[in-house]
């Protein structure tokens, strides 16, 4: 009987330890790759070579890896932003995955009704090295925002809805808005293995 209780406590502690470790790992900033080159706000991003979007309209790009737990956690937030603001911006999903997946499979699996592209070069062009990340380009295709959706992994903190704040600031013509380090420091899954 005592052995069974000790074994049960050990198993439960091990499971709890695994969950704690996973939560801790994904709360740390993603390490900058050695070859990382920062892309400054205001940099022109030549999106037309990657995907066709409506000219003269801001573009919201969601960098997504279906194998990344953080990407899956925030997909609901991205879809909410996209479904409520299609008149304000064009929305595009860029899949960054080492697996060979087709765009149509991703659209179907995750119920996405916007362009989905498999172009890892766009991540480098925008300075993205982690998923999930949001990139917002102004109507002139200049980088307005690159960063996190929210301080909370599950995007539940309305005070730190960084991607939504950035989109609203662009709409309200406040391009000089300064974001905190929490907003622009990448958290999530490194894309080193996804980029050629």
Task: Give the SSE layout.
Layout (H helix, E strand, L loop, with lengths): L1 H24 L33 E6 L4 H16 L5 E6 L7 H8 L5 E2 L3 H6 L3 E2 L1 E5 L5 E5 L14 H10 L9 H4 L4 E2 L6
* Major sheet characteristics: 5 strands, mixed
Whole-number tally of structural domains? 2
Q: How many strand segments?
A: 7
Structural class: alpha/beta
CATH architecture of the largest domain: 3-Layer(aba) Sandwich
Strand content: 5-15%
Strand order of the largest sheet: 3-2-1-5-6
Please trace the helix and strand order, writing H or E for each element: HEHEHEHEEEHHE
**Average predicted local confidence, pLDDT:** 83
Shape: elongated
What is the chains' assembly state? single chain
Q: Write the CATH fold name of the largest domain.
A: Glutaredoxin
How far do the termini sit from each other?
A: 56 Å
Computed CA radius of gyration, to the nearest angstrom: 19 Å
**CATH level-4 homologous superfamily of the largest domain:** Glutaredoxin
Fraction of residues in helix? 25-40%
Provide the low-confidence segments as ranges: none
**CATH class type of the largest domain:** Alpha Beta
Number of helices, counting only DSSP H or I runs of 4 residues or more:
6
